[in-house]
Amino acid sequence: MFKSIIFALPLLVLGHGMANAGQTIDVAATMACVNDKWNETEPEKGHKLAEYAGRCVVIPNDSNAKNYVEDCAGNYEYMPDGSWKGAGTCSVDLKAGDTISLTWEEGSHLQDYKYEYTGGTGKYKGAKGGGTYKTNELTTTLYGGRKKGNLELP
To answer: Choosing a second label site near 31 at 20 to 30 A (CA), which of 91, 114, 125, 148?
Structure first.
């Protein structure tokens, strides 16, 4: 039976409260995630496609930073030779009303998965940076992992 690879969400830490222009924030964190959607099709024998949507609770390494939730969606492709790849986007909806967006990439060709911040709203407009993450599947719908990287504020 085909076992789905469930991606970890690249998530950010918002530091000690207020974000300041020109600031670089260490986003190291632990995450606990759930799949809300995993629609898999097999257009031809051994070639599978999956549409994903899920959420994570992020617990920053910095004990003064607040936990937050991130919503993500993307697509995966599994090849007959056993290789696979996935890519998508995530949105962090901050309690103060601002958002931050990012893209992510996973695959059998990567030892650590990659993410990149692509902007946001309010004080996070123009945010950039990124890093890497890794996860472990706990069940078919639950997984957890760790991430590292930086968020650079404009």
So the answer is: 125
